[in-house]
Every structure is written in C-alpha cells, then in structure tokens.
Amino acid sequence: MSEHQPHRFERGTDGPKVIMAGVDGSESSLRATAYAAGLARWQNALLALVYVQPVMAAGASLGAPVSGTTEEIAEGLVEEIRTSAERVKDLWQVRWEFRTFKGDAYAGLVRAAEELKADAVVVGVSESAGHRFVGSVAVRLVKAGRWPVTVVP
C-alpha cells in the first residue's frame, strides 16, 4: 500500500497553466498583453490580465481635481480587452480573466501572481524616465526571482 500524498502546487512542471500580464493602458503594456495572449494560446493556458489601481495621491485625497478615477481606467481597460477579444475570438480562442488590485504596481503584481499561482509574468517596459534611478516594476519582478518574467518593449 502506498501513502496518498495531497497534490502540491508546483510551478512549471507540466507547462504553464496561468500566464499573467500586467496591463495599465500604456502602449507597452498593451503589447505585453498581446504577447502574453499568444503565449497563453500556444500553451493552452489561462491568460490573467491584471491592472493595479494606484493609491490616490495625497493632493487628490484633499480635494484636488482628478482627471478620471482608477475605477474608470479599469472599466475602460476591461472594455478595450473585451472588444479586442471579441474581434479575434475565432482565431485565438484564449481563456482569459481580468482582475484589479489596489496599491503599488510592484506589490500588486506580486500579490496577483501569488494568488493566481502564475507560472509566468509578462509586463511592458516602463515608459517613465524616473525608473532609471528607482528601478522599474519589470526589473523588480525579475530580481524577485519567483517567476519567469518577460519584458516586452
């Protein structure tokens, strides 16, 4: 008689089951989404699209005008993704889901990857010049060393 051991999650053993892409509406994040969709299709994996809603700036919390809320951005992204998915559904046939998290982009993507049990993470290259000094989200994800990370230009 052999002992029955409970199945433990193990990343990357049978090919990716979940490919996660960070999307924020920037051109590079949309290219990353398209790249991740191709990977998900090729691997028959779930494409998990994640938008991290930034924490409201201090000025906005004190009543300064804000041009569009992060919820509106998330809704716009979902609509854009649905429209794109509908256009290519017969060609791509990719299973996908969209999730939002609040907070810092890096921490939100890490939390999302852990909750989704992502096998791979795809992000767009940072379009902010300030990241040369602080470090981009992509670089921080690579340095974390928890998942294979693809950075799409």
From TrEMBL:
One Pfam family matching this protein: Usp
Residue span, UspA domain: 17-153
Source domain of life: Bacteria
SUPFAM superfamilies: Adenine nucleotide alpha hydrolases-like
InterPro entries according to UniProt: Rossmann-like_a/b/a_fold, Universal_stress_UspA, UspA
CDD domains listed in its UniProt record: USP-like
Any coiled-coil regions, as ranges: none
PANTHER family listed in its UniProt record: STRESS RESPONSE PROTEIN NHAX, UNIVERSAL STRESS PROTEIN UP12
Family as reported in the entry's similarity comment: Belongs to the universal stress protein A family.
Name listed for the protein in its UniProt record: Universal stress protein A
Species name: Streptomyces hydrogenans
